Amino acid sequence: MNRDDLIQEACRMCFSPQAANAYDRVREQLAAAVTAELTSRQDLEELIGGGNTEAMTLNHQNHGQFIAAQLTHFQPQVLVETVAWVLRSYQSHGFHKDYWPVQLNSWCRHIEAMLPEEAPDILPLYHYLMEYLEEFDRLPAP
Q1: Is the dihedral of CA 63, 58, 48, 77 positive or negative?
Q2: At the topology level of CATH, where does 3-138 sit?
């Protein structure tokens, strides 16, 4: 699957304004909950590399802001390019490939807990990200 295929697949998604607003209202709490969950893991250093806890925390905050923006003003090409860049960037700083599914699964759990009514509208974006992680990881830099 190439960049255009990932964009085409992303184009199938759409998000309600209610779900976007709900996510934006709790995005900071979601990021904090994901950070707390991952920080408590015994294998955290294996997932993110030594000394990268602050970078992980910042990534979760940025992730929440980015997803909130995508839910409000969905741009599939921006989504694909940004996700591919984030994977390359963080992995070049010691984050392991296994971090991404762990992190995304944590976001899903906390979205379901904090936004049970909106979760069915938001989670397809997370499922898309998880389903195509390997493809994002293989995309060459533009």
Answers
A1: positive
A2: Globin-like (1.10.490)
Give the residue extent of every domain in the chain. Answer: 3-138
Between CA 20 and CA 67 the distance in angstroms is: 9
User: What does the pLDDT look like over 59-104, one tens digit per residue?
Assistant: 999 999 999 999 999 999 999 999 999 999 999 999 999 999 999 9
Written as one letter, the residue type at 43 is D
Please state, in angstroms and rounded to a whole number, the distance separating the CA atoms of residues 71 and 20.
Answer: 5
The C-alpha angle 16, 7, 58, rounded to 5 degrees, equals 70
Question: pTM score, two decimals?
Answer: 0.96
Is pLDDT at 8 greater than 80 in this prediction? yes
Distance, in Å, from the CA atom of 71 to the CA atom of 18, rounded to the nearest integer, reads 10
**pLDDT value of residue 140:** 86
Burial 89-121 (b: 16+ CB within 10 A, else e): ebeeeebeeebbebbbebbbebbeebbeebbeb
